[in-house]
């Protein structure tokens, strides 16, 4: 009986001549979408894993003299986070660095916490943005003040709610500058802490997916963004670009838009080693995460045209992929159903393998089968947020 069924399936697959024209068209579309999706995951999403594998076999040489580094932090009402995490920045195993924290008009005990730390750590420097400052983005002003006050050429940016993976964080990030003389920007990765909040897992997956994409494209020679929780660039480059000139009218964009403006194939490096990570505190509720995600997406229309086109292709092909596969399952004949199912499984297991391997590389836990659900829902959520963007206002952060 089983042999008979198997033979019927094989015969139906081989008998393509009787298929209607529309099925040939759908089969061609499915094939093109499959090829692009496989290319996207293998070329870009797996790039971090390949990079770390290469570095294990070919470790970067250590310099005889490490360059000085200024860590830059902007803090607004961050009393608790500074209490919990600032010491990790001040106790790095690095020969020459300082930490500049800008109190951005805080109304809590941020200043008192900073002054207490200052008594213990001489390398900490404090400046401030007045509470009454009237600017569109006080964070850009805060970062500009910190850059101008910085002592060293190499600037390492992070946030007050972030903590490095280890005391070798600076050393690992600086290594990106030592790999090439032309380097002006080093992109790092900043995962979110795992928590018991219901929304936490989807936040971490969304962050991982976006991180693998911007790091992978940068490794492929197409840098387009970075995150201010773990980002490094030269002070001289910042000054030559007149800081955030051209971006001051927007509340966000101090990290991704700035990188999108200045990053090139030749001046950008990626560091994604385990000790280069900077962990961050995630939003505890779906509402707060949506507000944060809206703010991040609000600057995407200001990306370079080429970047917008590049970023739009993947979710578009992904959506079409699922639609055409569903079309095959519902209306197509048996040969096309079998082919569509086979390609669907190949794409899914490739995707799951690459993302879970990259997650382990970047200190994350495995996501397993739930990747399929996120893969379908997150682009829909992003499209909805972009479509309703104009209805929402944001705080000055």
What characteristics describe this protein?
397 residues; alpha/beta; Spore Coat Polysaccharide Biosynthesis Protein SpsA, Chain A; 2 domains; two-stranded antiparallel ribbon; elongated
Q: Oligomeric status of the shown chains? A: single chain
Shape: elongated
Predict the CATH topology of the largest domain: Spore Coat Polysaccharide Biosynthesis Protein SpsA, Chain A
CATH H-level superfamily title of the largest domain: Spore Coat Polysaccharide Biosynthesis Protein SpsA, Chain A
Number of domains: 2
Structure notes:
The chain is an alpha/beta fold. It folds into two domains: 8-47 and 307-391, no CATH class; 61-296, Spore Coat Polysaccharide Biosynthesis Protein SpsA, Chain A (Alpha-Beta Complex), CATH 3.90.550.10. The protein contains 14 helices and nine strands. Strand 1 (69-75), helix 4 and strand 2 form a beta-alpha-beta unit. The chain is elongated.
Concise structural overview:
The protein is an alpha/beta fold.
Give the arrangement of secondary structure elements.
Layout: H1 2-14, H2 21-45, H3 47-57, E1 69-75, H4 79-90, E2 97-104, H5 110-120, E3 124-129, H6 138-149, E4 154-159, E5 162-164, H7 169-178, E6 185-187, H8 200-219, E7 231-234, H9 235-240, H10 256-262, E8 268-270, E9 278-280, H11 286-297, H12 305-331, H13 334-361, H14 371-387
Parallel strand pairs: 1-2, 1-4, 2-3, 6-8
Antiparallel strand pairs: 4-7, 5-9, 6-7
């Amino acid at each position: 009986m089983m042999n008979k069924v198997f033979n019927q399936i094989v015969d139906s697959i081989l008998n393509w001549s009787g298929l209607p024209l529309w099925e040939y068209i759908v089969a061609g579309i499915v094939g093109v979408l499959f090829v692009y999706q496989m290319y996207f995951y293998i070329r870009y999403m797996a790039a971090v894993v390949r990079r770390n594998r290469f570095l294990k076999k070919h470790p970067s040489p250590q310099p005889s003299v490490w360059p000085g580094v200024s860590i830059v932090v902007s803090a607004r009402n961050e009393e608790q986070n500074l209490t919990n995490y600032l010491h990790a920045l001040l106790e790095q195993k690095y020969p020459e660095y300082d930490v500049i924290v800008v109190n951005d008009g805080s109304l809590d005990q941020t200043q008192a916490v900073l002054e207490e730390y200052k008594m213990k750590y001489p390398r900490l420097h404090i400046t401030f943005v007045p509470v009454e400052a009237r600017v569109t983005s006080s964070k850009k002003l805060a970062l500009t003040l910190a850059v101008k006050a910085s002592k060293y050429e190499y600037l390492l940016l992070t946030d007050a709610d972030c903590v490095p993976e280890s005391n070798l964080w600076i050393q690992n990030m600086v290594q990106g500058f030592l790999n090439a003389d032309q380097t002006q920007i080093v992109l790092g990765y900043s995962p979110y802490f795992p928590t018991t909040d219901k929304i936490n897992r989807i936040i971490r997956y969304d962050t991982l997916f976006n991180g693998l994409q911007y790091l992978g494209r940068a490794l492929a020679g197409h840098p387009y963004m970075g995150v201010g929780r773990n980002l490094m660039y030269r002070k001289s480059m910042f000054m030559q670009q007149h800081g955030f000139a051209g971006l001051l009218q927007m509340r966000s964009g101090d990290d991704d838009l700035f990188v999108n403006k200045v990053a090139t194939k030749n001046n950008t490096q990626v560091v994604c080693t385990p000790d280069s990570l900077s962990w961050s505190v995630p939003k505890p509720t779906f509402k707060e995460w949506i507000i944060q995600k809206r703010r991040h997406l609000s600057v995407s229309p200001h990306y370079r045209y080429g970047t917008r086109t590049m970023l739009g292709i993947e979710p578009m092909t992904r959506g079409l992929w699922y639609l055409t596969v569903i079309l095959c399952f519902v209306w197509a004949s048996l040969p096309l159903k079998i082919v569509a199912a086979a390609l669907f499984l190949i794409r899914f297991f490739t995707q799951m393998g690459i993302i879970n391997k990259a997650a382990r590389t970047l200190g994350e836990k495995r996501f397993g089968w739930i990747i399929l659900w996120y893969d379908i829902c997150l682009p829909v959520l992003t499209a909805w947020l972009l479509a309703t963007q104009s209805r929402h206002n944001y705080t000055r952060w």
